[in-house]
Amino acid sequence: MSRLIALALAVVMHLAAPAGAQAPPPPPPAAAPGAPIQGLERLSPEERAVAERNLERWRRMTPEQRQRALDNYRHWKSLSPDERRSARENLQRFRQMPPGERARIMQDFQRWNELPADRQRELERAYERYQQLPPDRQKQIQQRYERYQSLTPEQRERFDRNLERWRTMTPEQRQQARERMRQRRPAPPAQPREIRPPR
Q1: Residue 5 to residues 11, 110, 111, 120, Cα–Cα distance (Å)
Q2: 177: helix, coil or strand?
């Protein structure tokens, strides 16, 4: 999950900063349209072109988009150099993905943002636990996830309902459910007896 967050953050930060450079300070919210910006003359031609593009983008933003860009910028400034480097690398990988995969990541990020904060924290903790598992256990979990992804929508819905029911069970109820499942499993096929010709 942290990888997804870092990738999505890099994509969102792309709106506020050019890749490969420190995030420039966003224009002040009170800047009047068309007002000259101090200090552009000190920039190289390439930096000035980037700053002017960002300024134009800023001027076209709604107040909500500006607030989101400011929040993203503040978050960017709070990242360590390693986290920023990782975010830039993730952004580069994101740009190289096929359009369908990029769209899926953005949908996942949108769903993530819609989750309550306590659910986000729960998922982050689960991801941290996953990262600490041995590689063979991680692979097993990845295979299970891929099987889940291959289910039809109806099968997923049934699986999700069962999972939610499992989460609400007490340990005793879970043990009883395991026993019932063992009893339902078909017995292994009986080994055919060897037939010997009569003597």
Answers
A1: 10, 11, 12, 10
A2: helix
Q: What is d(CA 143, CA 32) in angstroms, rounded to the nearest whole number?
A: 54
Judge contact between 34 and 58, C-beta under 8 A. no
Contacts of 106 (CB under 8 A, 6+ apart): 8, 11
Q: For the purposes of burial, counting CB atoms within 10 Å of the CB of 144, is it exposed (0-12), middle (13-18) or buried (19 or more)?
A: exposed
Give the alpha-carbon dihedral of 57, 4, 157, 138, to 10 degrees. Answer: 170
Rounded alpha-carbon distances, angstroms, from residue 173 to 109, 162, 163: 35, 13, 14
Q: What is the pLDDT of residues 53-110, one digit of tens each?
A: 888 888 899 999 889 888 888 988 999 999 999 999 998 999 999 999 999 889 988 8
Alpha-helical regions (H) of the chain: 2-13, 45-60, 63-78, 81-96, 99-114, 117-131, 135-149, 153-168, 171-184
Q: How much is the pTM?
A: 0.43
Q: Where are the domains of the chain?
A: 1-29+37-132, 135-178
**Token digits for 143?**
């295979």
Residue 91, judged by CB atoms within 10 A of its CB (0-12, 13-18, 19+), counts as buried
Q: Which of 12, 3, 22, 24 is nearest to 90 (CA)?
A: 3
CB 57 within 8 A of CB 51: no
Cα–Cα distance, 6 to 91 (Å, whole number): 9
11, pLDDT greater than 90: no
